[in-house]
Amino acid sequence: MRDKLTKIAKDLPATVPFVGPETQERENNYKFLARIGANESVFGPSKKVQDAIKIAVTSTWQYGDPENFDLIDALASFYSLKRENFVVGEGIDGLLGYLVRLFVEPGEQVVTSLGAYPTFNYHVVGFGGKLSLVPYKNFHEDLYGLIKEAKKVKAKILYLSNPDNPMGTFHQKRDVQKFIDEVPDDTLLCLDEAYSDFVDQDQLPELDTSRSNVIRFRTFSKAYGLAGLRVGYAIGNSTLISSFNKVRNHFGVNKIGQIAALAALEDQEYLQKTLIAVEESKIRIKSIFSKMGFSSLESHTNFVAINMGKDSNYAKNILTELIKNKIFVRMPGVTPLNSFIRVSAGQEEDLRYLEKAMAEIMRKN
Ligand SMILES: *Cc1c(COP(=O)(O)O)cnc(C)c1O
Within 6 Å (CB) of ligand 1, which residues are found? Predict the structure, then answer.
């Protein structure tokens, strides 16, 4: 049947954008001591969320609500917007796939940054889109360069992650607002705000749902600690949002995910505690590395990008050594970002393992 694949599928490599820590554990025949590489929340979901999940367990024989009604209702009141401004999906990752499917014809251009979130690119090539990649500037996504490229190639979608992954950098409200105003009318701005919970909310651009060419993505995976349940959402103009009902997988968000996300949104007190724990952890990570002479970028996320000070081979070598020492971390994939390694916030115990492993590695290097 291989020759029966679509032209697009035939030419695609079979890949996973992120090799999971589980794969590495299987290959190495050990368990990681510290899992601080995928920007998950080691602080986990709140006790209230855990209790809601326990109660929900007995109803798993039911399909979830295909309209995600209760969760969308809660999101609408949380943001003081209308229900029509939200679509809930199986994580931002799932929604990005629908977005590309809705807007990109084979051969059409899409603009993103070179080294930005790979799952978006994965969907673009999966639907036959063509990627135009704009280099980072001073470890920030280059707002001006992105707009220029989007105009030049007449991009169908322009992707920006703010705060950014993998560097953790952030563009201030004023600059993003200006950026949004400059996006061409025929280009859809995909603003990935997976890390929006980690910055002051008044530093984010206004949620203006009157614009039909801006869509924003948020998730319960990072700050709310529900990565394994797969719940994310998009916020946008109601016409744009309703188009997701043409293609989305109606039972893609599972029942437990719906219930847990709702309980998580209602427990803002716990979110605040998590944010404090993340800040403390980032300070600790920075200090572990600064004592060894490494600087880090200012982080607006739940991870820290640490400059290993030399070339990518050196950073890669340290990363490999950390993995050997059973510390799961990751690093950016392209030059010049790949002289950094990326460490997610951890519990004190995780960071003690990290510190010990780094001390041993530096003794040898
Ligand atoms: C983690 C991450 C996502 C994935 O979010 P899910 O809701 O878990 O799919 C999307 N975008 C960026 C930039 C991320 O870092």
Answer: 39, 91-93, 117, 161, 165, 192, 194, 219, 221, 227, 232
